[in-house]
Amino acid sequence: DMKAELFVNNTKLSLGHRDLVEFAIILDDNDKNKDILHEMAKSKCPQIRSHIASFQGLHSKTYHMFLDDNSIDVIRSLTCHATSYSHMKRKDLDRFISIGDSEITSGILGNLYEIVEEYRICKQDWIYKKLVNVEDPAIRLELADSEETPIDILEKLIVDADVDVSEAAKRTIDRIDSL
Question: What is the pTM of this model?
Fold first, then answer.
């Protein structure tokens, strides 16, 4: 467990779990808090870790610690903002995609530019080829609804077993053809 104490004018207050959760919430995402945020990121509490993982101004070592985290909430927080991708490798994306969580996938799709162009983690086609095969129809539907999805992927989605995915892919191809 984490030992936390607050000192004010030589007066000590021991902080418990609830205090630490509240403390994590009120801390600002700035340089002066990087060290304390890193220490708090070591918490056994996923609620604290996931909140801190949503910050964009963390130490590199903190991001790397989160990349190995198994909490779905931490991974969701990590994949929702572009800054965390500067610390990722393709193997991290592969692991996150293989989880098959629609919120994680939405974060990845929402940060495609950073993943592909800015940080050059992988090619865009690699991501789409991974996502077209996930079991969750919500993820495939998100691909089928997007004009950013490559035509070859949309063509695969036209024959998807889920009727919503199939129809969305057809509509998207029709929209693209009419442009």
Answer: 0.88
Tokens representing 67 are 């990349």
Q: Retrieve residue 104's tokens.
A: 């994680």
Any idea how long the chain is? Answer: 179
**7: helix, coil or strand?**
strand
Cα–Cα distance, 75 to 71 (Å, whole number): 6
What does the block give as tokens for 118? 């800015």
DSSP secondary structure of 17-54: HHHHHHHHHHS-SSGGGHHHHHHHTT-S-HHHHHHHHT
Tens of pLDDT, residue by residue over 26-74, are 999 999 999 999 999 999 999 999 999 999 999 999 999 999 999 999 9
Identify whether the C-beta of residue 97 lies closer than 8 Å to the C-beta of residue 109: no
Residues 121-175: tens digit of each pLDDT = 999 999 999 999 999 999 999 999 999 999 999 999 999 999 999 999 999 999 9
For residue 158, give Cα distances in angstroms to 52, 80, 136, 169, 172: 40, 28, 16, 5, 10
Contacts of 116 (CB under 8 A, 6+ apart): 122, 123, 124, 127
List of E strands, the chain = 4-8, 11-15
Using alpha carbons, select from 62, 41, 124 the residue that is nearest to residue 90: 124
- For residue 116, the cross-strand partners are none
